[in-house]
């Protein structure tokens, strides 16, 4: 009986030893290491300090460019042209020129003095001689042909206003009627430019440009 118990105990010890050896030899799975927090930076991205510095440089460059551009525009002749910036003055010039052209280029053989008066009121400088030359034929034939010349400005555009001087492009319709026996009437359109000057509180025509060479 003791022998049998001895054998049983021996077998148990051998089995336990074998199990312990197996556990010892079995490879242990490596424990996962704790992940370290990493700062991810997208490829090609610029670090914030450098990006802010670049933006500051660009902002400064843009401000300098805008200032330089503004100064150049202020000095540009276009901005000194009041026809582009002062609507009230532009309307004043257009009104004065329209009234002057209608008056000085109209003639009635029954009242030739009205045209002379209009010329004295609305013309100055070189335009005085130009007007006399342009209406010389009308005055010469006015009494005989009983002429009535009527001019009406249909459109006008102020090209430039610089201080007390301006230039205006004028479109006008003209009718020349002879009230004599067997007389006739002719109609025409005219386009010309006038240079005007502010004199004595009003705009006067100083030069008449008919674009003829």
In words, what does this structure look like?
By secondary structure, the protein is of the alpha+beta class. The protein folds into 2 domains: 55-85; 87-209, Nuclear Transport Factor 2, Chain: A (Roll). Helices cover 51% and strands 26% of the residues. It contains 8 helices and 5 strands. It has a 5-stranded antiparallel sheet with strand order 1-2-3-4-5, with helices on both faces. A hairpin with a 2-residue loop joins strand 4 (185-199) and strand 5 (202-209).
Brief characterization of the structure:
This protein is 51% helix and 26% strand.
- Which strand order do you get reading across the main beta sheet? 1-2-3-4-5
Sheet-strand content, in percent, reads 25-35%
Q: What profile does the largest beta sheet have?
A: 5 strands, antiparallel
Unreliable sequence segments = none
The CATH architecture classification of the largest domain is Roll
Counting DSSP H or I runs of 4 or more residues, the number of helices is 8
Secondary structure: elements and pairs:
Elements: H1 2-25, H2 48-75, H3 77-80, H4 82-85, H5 87-104, E1 107-108, H6 112-122, H7 126-134, H8 136-145, E2 147-162, E3 165-178, E4 185-199, E5 202-209
Antiparallel strand pairs: 1-2, 2-3, 3-4, 4-5
Helix pairs in contact: 5-6
Output the keywords.
213 residues, alpha+beta, 2 domains, 5-stranded antiparallel β-sheet, 8 helices, 5 strands, elongated
């Amino acid at each position: 009986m003791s022998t049998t118990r001895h054998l049983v105990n021996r077998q148990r010890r051998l089995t336990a030893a074998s199990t312990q050896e197996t556990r010892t030899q079995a490879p242990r799975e490596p424990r996962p290491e704790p992940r370290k927090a990493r700062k991810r930076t997208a490829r090609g991205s610029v670090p914030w300090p450098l990006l802010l510095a670049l933006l500051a440089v660009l902002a400064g460059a843009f401000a300098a460019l805008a200032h330089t551009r503004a100064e150049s525009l202020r000095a540009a002749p276009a901005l000194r042209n009041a026809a582009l910036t002062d609507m009230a003055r532009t309307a004043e010039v257009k009104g004065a020129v329209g009234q002057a052209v209608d008056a000085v280029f109209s003639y009635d053989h029954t009242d030739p003095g009205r045209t002379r008066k209009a010329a004295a009121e609305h013309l100055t400088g070189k335009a005085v001689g130009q007007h006399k030359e342009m209406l010389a034929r009308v005055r010469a034939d006015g009494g005989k042909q009983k002429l009535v010349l009527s001019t009406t400005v249909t459109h006008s555009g102020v090209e430039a206003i610089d201080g007390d001087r301006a230039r205006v492009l004028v479109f006008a319709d003209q009718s020349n009627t002879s009230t004599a026996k067997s007389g006739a009437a002719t109609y025409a359109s005219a386009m010309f430019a006038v240079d005007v000057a502010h004199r004595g509180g009003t705009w006067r025509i100083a030069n008449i440009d008919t674009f003829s060479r």
